[in-house]
Request: fold
Amino acid sequence: MSNSPDDEDLEELRRKKLEQLQDRAEAGGSEEAQEAAAQQAEAQRQALLRQYLTDDARKRLNTVKMSKPEFAEQVERQVVALARSGRLQGKIDDAKMKALLNELQPERKSFDIKRR
Reply:
């Protein structure tokens, strides 16, 4: 078998195809790495919440999460931020959770309807 131009072209095409496949595998691996990092961050967040919330406070937060998931997510982010910054002394109990929920809850507009 001699190295004809056709053989060289074929080898060049194979090499390029192999490089493309390797590039795709690396790109797919980065997506998996990002997903793994996101899962790890979520696990750390849940561990912080377990550490700084009492059982009653966690139950209240889970109840809020059932009806208002976005609001509960905001409260969780706030608790995690307080914990990471070191501004939490001890655990958040149910009374403190109620106060935090009331503080973070957007103000409602009230309408007074007067009938004549």
